[in-house]
Amino acid sequence: MATEGKQAEQTWTVEQERHAKSIEELDLHEIRRQPVVKFVTAFLIGAVFFLVPVPYQGELTVPFDIVVSTITETFPTAVGVYALAIIVAGGVLTTAARVGDGTVAGYDLSYFDTSVAFWILRLAGVVVAPVMFFKLGPSWLHTPGTGGLMWGTLVYSVGVIIPIGAVFITIFVELGGLEFVGTIARPVMRPLFKIPGRAALDSLASWVGSYSVGLYVTRNVFEQGGYNKRDVFTIATCFSTVSIGFVGVVAATLDILQLFPVVFGAYFLCVIVTAAILVRIPPISRVPAEYITEPDPETAFSGSIREYFRLALAEAVEKADEGESFLEAAKRGFVDGLKLTTLILGTILTVGLAATLLSANTPIFDILGRPLTPVIAALGIPNAETVAPATIVGITEMYVPVLLVTETALKAKFFIAVLAVSQLIFFSSVGPMTMDMFSDVPIRFRDLVALFVMRTVILVPIIAGMTHLAAAIGLLG
Questions:
Q1: Is 362 exposed, middle or buried (CB count within 10 Å of its CB: 0-12, 13-18, 19+)?
Q2: pTM
């Protein structure tokens, strides 16, 4: 992590190869049985855990969601104690890293160092966490839409999701999955979004698991030289998506679960369109293409679908052949996940609680939304006076806009359902998480606010058009 007052970190840049190599020009790794079995096993473990739908309590979900839900719902007190301990540890370790020589009992604490602003936020988390855990203070601090949401839902979920997800993602990534998915996705990711093909895995981890897991993958690949700063900025702000499961939660809350395929399809298209636009304009386009360690860029390649598959398999097998064992990868993933959780959980609680309290107890978002009322009305969306502030309040927490429109017309519900999950940037979790995790990029508050506004400006007319199209073909009653 970048640190104030320290010497500027060394950076590297890489010139893009002009010549795309063919399959004959590459020295492909030998395909041998043992590393193939190792890669395929790791691939299947990750795929089953994150992707394969299974029936659970009358619904279809994935094993990852079942494990996280079981832990948080069955052992809420234990999870609360764990979250409290992690947040306190984050504040203490950050303080120890900034005060003195940055070591304790010979252990290097530089990983926990950060800027003064995030040091203060982590210390604030140390103060706020006991208040939330023991339900101290006024009742309005613990309502379901503010403190209850932040502590009992978001903090608990993120605290469990990251270390557990890190175990399976590390097995998948370190034993060939990243190379395989990344190579297959190159023909799409680079020309459309100007990022490496391997970024498809970060996005996939967000879609099927959680943006927390996706950002964990991004951080790991960044530290290994697989991404430059512009790649990270793009992935963190354009592909840290809401999971498929949460889209279902949004649809169920608005009583439009029967429209889930339409809502999800519209959401998927919105993410693609906004990413393709935003990567080509500031602030993303101005981020330097610098690496924070020795670069490991993807080799330029051109070939048929079959040749891409052959290359993907060769690279995956090479990684599996050289990689660590399943147990070593799992242990390292769990430890890395715990360390990352220690960094960000206090910041998420502090910023997220402030954002939700601001939304619930002040008229600021109603005031900001008033100029949008005639715009929403002109686009033909009903209940414009309710929908307008809901288009803005999503910057605090993605779920809040949904709660505002539960009593509106079907068109308004569909519009906000798609918009809320497509805006991506919100300050109850993703905002502080990305700023703290990627302070060496850096991803700044003003950039995130600007991107939220830009995404909203792009999305509002697009989703309005989708809403009218869905109504025209009879999907909205």
A1: exposed
A2: 0.80
